[in-house]
Write a structure and sequence with these properties.
The complex is a heterodimer of chains A (about 300) and B (about 240). Chain A is α+β, with helices and mostly antiparallel strands and about 300 residues long. In chain A, about 65% of the residues lie in helices and about 5% in strands. Chain A has a four-stranded antiparallel beta sheet. In chain A, helix 2 packs antiparallel against helix 6, helix 6 packs antiparallel against helix 8 and helix 6 runs parallel beside helix 9. The relative contact order of chain A is 0.19. About 0% of the residues of chain A have low confidence. Chain B has about 240 residues and is of the alpha/beta class. Chain B has a domain of about 160 residues: Rossmann fold. Chain B is about 30% helix and about 25% strand. The chains are: A alpha+beta (about 300), B alpha/beta (about 240). Bound molecules: adenosine-5'-triphosphate and magnesium ion (MG). The site of adenosine-5'-triphosphate has 11 residues of chain B, from helix 1.
């Protein structure tokens, strides 16, 4: 493990003796750098989409948590009975996790910002409120509304927040897609580096043979290639990441009203540090891919 | 002595034991047993295609024998892992028949290569001395492609000895040289032998062997009928 660590340090610091030992393999430089840069650019967007949908889903899910209320507006002496009927109906309705009547004090607290705390609410004919928390599957709002109007006149279902339910599901899927995209980008980068490294190793077969003949260990020869491709992929990915971050920074900010989801597509605060992980991941992927390719190629030389 | 893995070959740096090797078809070498004592000077002769290069390759583990065993420094080559092979090649200097340089490196870089790949730094003064010893001081910055055949072979010799190996193997080292240059190279090899190195040289050149015998007690191995025999003094 410490050998691998030394290896990584040597690569990052640009140290290591094998620099000139392997001839510069010009043909593989630009494809590698360009592909790493493009992948990193895409990764920045995939990351920002994943983060933005994450935030959005959180916000929407919050408002969904108390997604519906039933308002019972009847004469005060019939109120308790009506609330009981509603609760009974709700208990029978599939898709409702919990239904709870708010007590007088909670209703007062809800109204206080509008009416002032000192108002003697007990004297006012306030509607009674029943809060509904639904299950993940949700309930059928239409049939509940019909049943309430038939059985408890004065009970009214308010499900204004429920329209967001499909959006929350969609947001979760988009976030998952973002994650899958990131995974695919990493896999594509690994495949691309493997191909480029294999091409370089095959082109330098004679060099590798001579190096083995004069007593080079496999690790030494592998290092020459690993350094090269780690450096290229890391550099390309760094440039791609910075360009991607700049593009995101130039998007219209959340100040613009009505931009909705699109305005949420940036990074917020410390999130700006997250894309900087991309070049590091690219370098690690290139390191591992080249090492594996070099091990394979070296096995064919005595 | 009982459990010592080196017991049969204690006094030899290279030991072939009943080695059979070939490349498909009938083997080139059959049931060959040879011992090379430390500090000895051997020539290896035989007609072209007899298997001289093959036998040398078995010594530095470029090849593993199909049957029998080859031990170098008491270690059986077939048992070595890849790092052990690398270390073996630092103790056995080889002048290859086709030299085998890295074409993109200059001559001094090529000569220093065995030291470079072992992770050490080469002392420039030492490298300069070595290049002077083979008469290549003025060609140090040239690329291999710019050298004559003889210059390449001297550069290959310099590269073979730069790690101060205990064994020096040379495959037709005078193949491209005129007689004067051949004698100069022979002198270098004899010098190395006097320093205690074990020398093994494949050559066709009987004149070279005769010249060597006036300077050191060289023995001649000959490949004939798929076997290796010690040639008499009647060359
Ligand atoms: N890698 C190989 N694959 C197949 N045949 C080979 C291989 N290497 C050598 N041979 C054959 O084995 C035979 C012996 O080759 P080798 O190079 O050992 O001969 P040599 O005695 O060194 O010849 P020369 O004096 O011409 O250098 C030759 O017929 C050669 O064609
Ligand atoms: Mg030969």
């Amino acid at each position: 493990m410490t050998r691998v660590f030394d290896h990584v340090i040597a690569v990052i610091a640009g140290r290591g003796p094998a620099n000139r030992i392997v001839p510069p393999s010009g043909a593989t430089v630009w494809p590698t750098v360009l592909a790493a840069g493009a992948m990193a650019f895409l990764a920045v967007f995939a990351l920002s989409v994943a983060l933005a949908t994450d935030r959005l889903a959180d916000r929407w899910a919050d408002s969904l948590a108390h997604s519906a209320t039933v308002r019972v507006t009847v004469a005060p002496d019939q109120a308790d009975q009506a609330v009981d009927s509603v609760l009974r109906i709700l208990a029978q309705t599939p898709g409702i996790a919990e239904a709870r009547a708010l007590d007088q004090q909670e209703i007062s607290q809800l109204l206080a910002p509008w009416l002032g705390a000192e108002l003697p609410l007990e004297d006012l004919p306030l509607p009674r409120l029943i809060e509904i928390r639904e299950t993940d599957a949700g309930f059928d709002a239409e049939s509940l509304r019909l049943r309430l109007s038939a059985e408890v006149p004065g009970a009214e279902l308010d499900d204004h927040a429920r329209w967001r339910r499909p959006l929350v599901l969609a947001a979760g899927r988009i976030r998952a897609l973002g994650m899958v995209s990131l995974g695919l980008i990493v896999a594509a980068m690994a495949a691309m580096v493997t191909l480029a490294a294999r091409a370089a190793l095959a082109a330098n077969r004679q060099v590798i043979e001579v190096l083995r003949l004069v007593g080079a260990r496999d690790a030494y020869i592998a290092r020459a290639f690993v350094r090269r491709f780690t450096h290229r992929a890391g550099t390309g990915a760094l440039v791609g990441t910075l360009v991607g971050m700049s593009a995101i920074a130039l998007l219209p900010g959340p100040a613009q009203e009505g931009a909705g989801f699109l305005s949420g597509l940036g990074f917020r605060g410390a999130e700006w540090l997250l894309p900087l992980v991309i070049p590091v991941v690219a370098a690690i992927v290139a390191f591992a891919a080249t090492r594996a390719a070099a091990r394979g190629a070296l096995r064919e030389v005595q | 002595m009982m459990n010592s893995p080196r017991s049969p070959d204690d006094r030899s740096v290279i030991a072939f034991s009943d080695v059979t090797h070939g490349y498909g078809g009938s083997p080139l070498l059959h049931g060959v047993s040879v011992r090379i004592a430390p500090g000895s000077f051997h020539f290896l002769t035989g007609p072209s295609g007899a298997g001289k290069t093959t036998l040398l390759k078995l010594c530095y583990r470029d090849l593993v024998p199909q049957q029998g065993s080859v031990s170098v420094f008491g270690q059986e080559t077939a048992q070595m892992d890849r790092d052990a092979v690398a270390l073996l090649r630092r103790r056995v200097g080889v002048v290859h028949q086709d030299c085998r340089f890295l074409d993109h490196l200059t001559i001094d870089e090529n000569v220093a290569l065995p030291v470079t790949v072992s992770g050490r730094h080469i002392d420039p003064a030492e490298l300069g001395e070595l290049l002077a010893w083979v008469g290549l001081s003025r060609r140090a910055g040239a690329l291999p492609a710019e050298l004559s055949g003889g210059e390449r072979q001297r550069a290959a010799l310099a590269r073979a000895v730069i790690t101060a190996p205990e064994i020096l193997i040379a495959d037709e080292p005078t193949g491209n040289l005129d007689w004067d240059m051949s004698l100069r190279l022979l002198t270098l090899l004899v010098e190395l032998n006097r320093m205690g190195k074990t020398i093994l040289i494949a050559t066709h050149d009987l004149n070279l062997i005769r010249a060597a015998k006036t300077q050191v007690s060289a023995r001649v191995l000959r490949i004939a009928n798929r076997r290796v025999e010690l040639a008499g003094a009647d060359l």
